[in-house]
């Protein structure tokens, strides 16, 4: 029987790296400082250091006969101190189901002020960019021509009123003698018609006076809405035309709209939830750090846009402090519903593998159990877990690198500000497991008082995590991570 010494040596290196990881870690950390970030040199030195510590182990594992190497692994693993980890408690609380979209702030009212009479601008009575009230004076137009027309109409009224009085007096005399038979019917009819015409003339004069007064009033241009003024578009001395020359644009920005679109694939869900209740929208600027300002969904367009496959929606929200400005891009979170009793874990607890996301759950005997999980939506620094973890269970949030399924771990409290393990979920404060844990085959182990809590990068070895390389099946994967051995 021919033994391939080269293959046996490579397999022995992989197996013994598993048995003696700590010497490789210490050497790798020392060389990390020496090489100052040269990862290629660090990787090579890491392998060399591991090989120095496992010469005897490689000879033993080189036989590769029966289960001797596995027994050596088990014995070495039993002697390894449990890795230090931080944990957090999975909490149960209400969590929203939402859609995150990009939108744009729009004014609720936009008015372009135009003159209703032609004339010369002789006064501007506001400051560009000022907050305006409805009825506030903006522009004045030279009113003298229109005042003259008004006076002319009033004079014509007096003339026609005198003519009316004469026509009515003549008609009265004609009525008296018509009854006596001394006036022809045609003459009487003419007198009646003249009196009516004089009365109509008076009515026309009154209308002309009203029109003249209205034109004089139009010479004083006032704000039609409450809003914010833009930049004036004309200066004093310009002659403007009726309903043609734009003078100013005013926009009402309190309340304000947030217009956004959703994919047509989400339309059915939005309509379904709209039928039950008014949907809430949280709107914020890209630079905001809070959850956003609350508003209500007030508009759903009547058609999907052909070019983009999206449909337009609009949320309305208060804007008294002018936090939002028309034309700004905003982030909109449309809350479809609130899920009750959702289970949440810190996002830092989530790990990824070829089989999907998973977490390590610390059981009562201080051993780690790998759980495949189905994740929901993120809730800040936490994430909803649809299945795989139950409320109250402890999940590892820091130090997963040296943890593998079934291994004993030593839970230590997270240092202040060390990471998500110290951040409570909304409406709940996660607790950490006791710092002292009892391993199945050893006495209780307590982390030294002066030993810092592990961080996300603590004791990180080059290459893949140990729990990602099962002992018996990933020799090739381990060699590929370390660059291969020849």
Quaternary organization = single chain
Order of helices and strands: HHHHHEEEEEHHEEEEHEEEEEEEEEEEH
- Mean pLDDT comes to 78
Uncertain runs with pLDDT below 50, 5 residues or more? Answer: 1-42, 44-67, 418-486
Give the tally of β-strands: 20
**Helix content, binned percent:** 25-40%
The gyration radius over C-alpha positions equals 43 Å
Main pleated sheet: 6 strands, mixed
Query: What is the number of helical segments per DSSP (H or I, 4+ residues)?
Result: 9
Label the structural class.
alpha+beta
Report the end-to-end length measured between terminal Cα atoms: 23 Å
Overall 3D form: elongated
- The fraction of residues in strands falls at 25-35%
Give the gist of this structure.
The chain is 31% helix and 29% strand. The protein is an alpha+beta fold and 486 residues long. Strands 1, 14, 15, 16, 19 and 20 form a six-stranded mixed sheet that branches.
How would you describe the overall organization of this protein?
- With 486 residues, the protein is of the alpha+beta class.
- It is built from nine helices and 20 strands.
- The chain has helices at residues 5-19, 21-35, 39-53, 55-62, 68-79, 144-179, 185-218, 267-276, 475-481, and strands at residues 84-89, 91-113, 119-124, 131-132, 137-141, 220-222, 227-229, 239-240, 248-263, 280-284, 293-300, 310-317, 329-346, 351-353, 356-362, 368-372, 374-379, 382-387, 394-398, 410-411.
- The strands form three sheets. Strands 1, 14, 15, 16, 19 and 20 form a six-stranded mixed sheet that branches. A six-stranded antiparallel barrel has the order 2-9-12-11-10-13. Strands 6-5-3-8 form a four-stranded antiparallel sheet.
- Helix 1 crosses helix 4.
- The longest helix has 36 residues, at 144-179.
- The radius of gyration is 43 Å and the shape is elongated.
